[in-house]
Amino acid sequence: MISFCVLAGDELAGRYLNHLLSLAKLTPTLVDRAKLIFLVEPQKISPEELARIPEEAPPRARIIAVSHKRKTLSFGHLKISYFKRPFTPERLYSFLEEELNCRFPLSPEEYRHPFIGEDEKIIKIREAIPVLARLPEPILLFGPKGVGKELLARHIHAYRQGRFVKFATSALPEEMIDPLLFGFGPGVIKKVKKAKEGAFAKVEDGVLYLENIENLPLSTQQRLLLFLENGYFYPLGSKEPVYSKAKLILSLSTPPEQLLKEGRLLPELFFKLAEFTLHLPPLRERLIDLPLLAQHFLESYAWVYRREIVSISLKLFERFLLYPWPKNVAELEEVVKDIVIWGEEKVLKEKFTRAPSIKLKFRNLEEMLTRLLEERELREQIESSHKDRGVNRTGSR
Q1: Arithmetic mean of pLDDT, 295-324
Q2: What's the CATH number of domain 120-279, 3.55.40.10, 3.90.1570.10, 3.50.50.60, 3.40.50.300?
């Protein structure tokens, strides 16, 4: 077990690094017990704190300075390595595996695109991924657009063998959905003489991700139900069933109860999928993760565009906290990308033109995160109180 300690001159960058290391199953601890001691932007760490490291660190501890510019450091007998910012998770993990001569217990998707988040709901989902991947049963993901359903589907696939095929209906004419999904025989489609395989056949025993199944015609949903019940499907124009071991992951961007009420979701299909469902909360319900996600996108896009790493000001974070984020994590990613390309002032001017009616003043990131935790705990207490009194806020009279 590899223990580590992060000392940060850049508070948010240090928190992000700590999160990535924890996701790789490294163990956070104090300086005097750490095998690895990370100094994030050491030029911003107080000289007094740096001076204590040689006295407190174990004899075989290793120092890793993480910074956008190299600073000469000396800690006596302790070995020092340098890791340059900005960085991607893949670069960080590769660097550490080479330094430590080991391999982290991460799937390929976790290695490249980690499922970021400290919110309790996100932690539970992340812990369930390996278990869900081993099950043959289909999985239903639901949550509004932009919350990361495809990323979650890819994480589940990463714990399995086989191909990953995404099937999205948004740009398809309705009459083409069944042929492309299930395949078709010769002559079924005009001017197409040969039979063609659909997404089901192409995925073989891998994962077929069906995005936004509320957009599927009810006849297609009925075909899916047939497959889930019997393990086979019929290509269009064929009387011979085709058996498949494909694992289905399906997603909804509209609440299931609304779709059932509107008649857009086949009840039998929904109840078949209801056993293994995961709800991804909107960003406004997991604001505790907003700083981590923002830093993740900041580091990644600074690396992609070869830009000097910047820090997001507390002023902008205050705007972030009061913004409703209707497009969720996908919108935050676009905003941070614009910050990297165009700068914070331009984004503030164009994206957050109107000052919020409520003003928040935080002295530092820790104060902001503490406030978020307190607000979440208060919200959970209120919800628990409502349940204890038999109040059903989602029911109708």
Answers
A1: 90
A2: 3.40.50.300
